[in-house]
DNA sequence: AACCCGCATGAAAACGATTACGTTGCTGCC
DNA sequence: GGCAGCAACGTAATCGTTTTCATGCGGGTT
């Protein structure tokens, strides 16, 4: 026996399907008495409106899609948590498609979501303006997260990597270190670029005469380890190191320990992201925290805001601040 | 201008809508020539079938729903990754609803998914047999992950906590420790119960004369710390400790370090889960690894298998093995 | 030559909701 | 008492597909 339809409810409550529909949504246009009778009948039959039928006529799915790359654990789950909580609060469903590596994979995912979602949340390094133009109908609202795309056609929501990196470097300098070396991320990565700029800006402002020392990594622990050894090979080695993310900082820490250096007494260290591991390494790692749940929540809210107003959607570029987390590794306490 | 419909394609290709439909799915019943003409017209118009309309008539959404509790980072993202990869491989979409604390919240989520999904993946401590009966139509295929529910009506997929815990205790005993103390998880938790049983079974088998020492925690780092102090207060304190999860082991480790004990020389330690942090604490933590991606993949495949066969779905209880990961903290190398 | 069968194709009926548009009946005002 | 106006309710069109059934056509068998 299949599920009850609106007709069954109508028959049960001895009214027309139109009245049932009216009673179920809003309830205007029906007497309180009949509305009550209808609701009683509905719950008696355990009636649940058929989502597809409603979608078809209203042209609204009450679903938003999230397109995500192959993300490292903590970031992914926090982001989804933020998105999901905000979505549920607004009565939206969440259709997820993650772990995309290639652009063509992402394109296929986007196409298959067509018509199932009212809007799209995209976080992906591979997605650029051309991709969006060719794979998306311009009528579909989109919010880009952490994207380098400078589109006037879509809302963009970024983490303030520049300010975060800059603040951490400033902190290290003001804690008494004459100079700070930097372990950069992959050059193709937007976040990495911004953090690099933040480092340079802070150095230029607070230590204009100090040398700029940069070693390039790729955000992996392994590359951090190599970068650490490379920095130690320099004479004299730097007294303070800022890594563009925590995983590289952790690898770097291993290199320092192996070399018999004490952190932070002999050399200070800081990372970026505040992944959980940062608290558990010894010494605990100073880093820059991104409020990821917040990021997801705001992204979804921006998207929903676009859905509501039918006018040419207001576009904005928004930036989400981050905060410095001072722990043992940067030696702030021994100034 | 709205998206192209099947009618537009039909007009463009000078055929009926029926032929377009046939050409798009499978293609049987149309000449190769006309099929090609239709596909050409379709791509010219950038035609994408309207998902809702198709759902309405086929009564299939090609979507499966995942109902998850408020999960700790790594586990959540790995599980979703496994589910998502398997789903995409089979052409299914993934509707996620996570971060559910209460049973009524979960119930609401389940209801709102009604009709949007072909099947449901449920991982939740709050969900029991009664919940399933009252909130789900029996026609909806469900796979329960890590659930204590012994239902003959639904497929259940569990991690072999018993074997994992048992194997770790056996390993500790055979590494030369005369006895092993246990830090248990919350008694209401199914995983915790199974790990507890595994501990007792291994003790009974490999150290039948040794005392059973158990301190109860709640899976948090804090409770692990308290448990560690409690164990050290005993005279003589245990020489080997097995915690029911890694977070408690990490808290416990802090307690041991504070007390000036060396791990593993003075006291051995092991956890369960193999969260990323386990590798980064000092000393690195021996633990039991669960193949989470695998868990998600298998769960989805089980579910899809049920979808395909219309007969009274074959029910099974499946168990996924886990493996011991030996690192520094258990002192296996200094036997 | 008559027949039948298979095959490509088209016409039209679903699917289950929303909603524009009529119809009814009642109220209130002149 | 008649008429306008309004609220409650029903009828039917509509959304975009799939699918059943009918139709016509070509060719092989008798």
Keywords, separated by commas or semicolons:
elongated, homodimer, alpha/beta, four-stranded parallel beta sheet, six-stranded parallel beta sheet, DNA-binding, 335 residues
Terminal Cα separation of chain A, in Å? 75 Å
Low-pLDDT segments of chain A:
none
Order of helices and strands of chain A: HHHHEHEHEHEEHEHEHEHEHEHEE
Strand order of the largest sheet of chain A: 2-1-3-4-5-11
Explain how this protein is built.
Two copies of one chain form a homodimer. With 335 residues, chain A is α/β, with parallel strands linked by helices. Chain A has helices at residues 6-13, 17-24, 32-44, 51-58, 73-89, 103-113, 129-135, 161-174, 190-206, 221-233, 246-258, 277-280, 292-308, and strands spanning 63-69, 93-100, 119-122, 142-145, 155-159, 181-184, 213-216, 240-243, 268-270, 287-290, 317-320, 322-325. A six-stranded parallel beta sheet of chain A has the order 2-1-3-4-5-11, with helices on both faces. In chain A, strands 7-6-8-9 form a four-stranded parallel beta sheet, with helices on both faces. In chain A, helix 2 (17-24) packs across helix 3, helix 5 runs parallel beside helix 13 (292-308) and helix 10 (221-233) packs across helix 11 (246-258). The longest helix of chain A has 17 residues, at 73-89. The first copy, chain A, starts with 5 loop residues before the first helix and ends in a 10-residue tail after the last strand. Chains A and B meet through helix 4, helix 5, strand 2 and helix 6 of A and helix 4, helix 5, strand 2 and helix 6 of B. Chain A binds a DNA duplex (30 and 30 nucleotides) through helix 2 and helix 4.
């Amino acid at each position: 026996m299949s599920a009850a339809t609106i007709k069954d409810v109508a028959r049960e409550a001895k009214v027309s399907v139109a009245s049932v529909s009216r009673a179920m949504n809003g309830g205007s246009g029906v007497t309180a008495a009949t509305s009550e009778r209808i609701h009683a009948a509905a719950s008696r039959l355990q009636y649940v409106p058929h989502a597809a039928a409603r979608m078809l006529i209203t042209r609204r799915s009450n679903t938003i899609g999230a397109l995500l790359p192959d993300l490292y654990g903590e970031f992914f789950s926090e982001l989804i948590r933020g998105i999901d909580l905000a979505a549920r609060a607004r009565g939206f469903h969440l259709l997820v498609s993650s772990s995309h590596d290639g652009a063509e994979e992402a394109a296929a995912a986007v196409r298959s979501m067509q018509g199932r979602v009212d809007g799209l949340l995209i976080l992906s390094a591979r997605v650029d303006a051309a991709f969006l133009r060719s794979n998306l109908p311009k009528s579909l609202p989109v919010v880009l997260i952490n994207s380098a795309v400078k589109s006037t056609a879509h809302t963009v929501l970024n983490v303030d990597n520049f300010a975060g990196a800059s603040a951490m470097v400033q902190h290290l300098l003001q804690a008494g270190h004459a100079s700070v070396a930097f372990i950069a991320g992959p050059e193709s990565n937007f976040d990495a670029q911004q953090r690099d700029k933040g480092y340079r800006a802070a150095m230029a402002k607070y230590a204009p005469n100090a040398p700029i020392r940069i070693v390039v990594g790729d955000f992996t622990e392994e590359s951090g380890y190599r970068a650490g050894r490379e920095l130690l090979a320099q004479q004299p080695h730097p007294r303070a190191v800022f890594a563009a993310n925590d995983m590289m900082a952790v690898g770097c820490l291993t290199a320092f320990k192996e070399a018999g250096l004490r952190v932070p007494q002999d050399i200070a260290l800081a990372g970026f992201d505040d992944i959980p591991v940062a608290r558990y390494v010894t010494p605990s790692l100073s880093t820059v925290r991104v409020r990821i749940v917040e990021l997801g929540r705001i992204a979804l809210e921006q998207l929903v805001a676009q859905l509501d107003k039918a006018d040419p959607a207001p576009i904005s570029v928004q930036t989400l601040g981050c905060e410095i987390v001072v722990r043992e590794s940067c030696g702030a306490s021994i100034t």
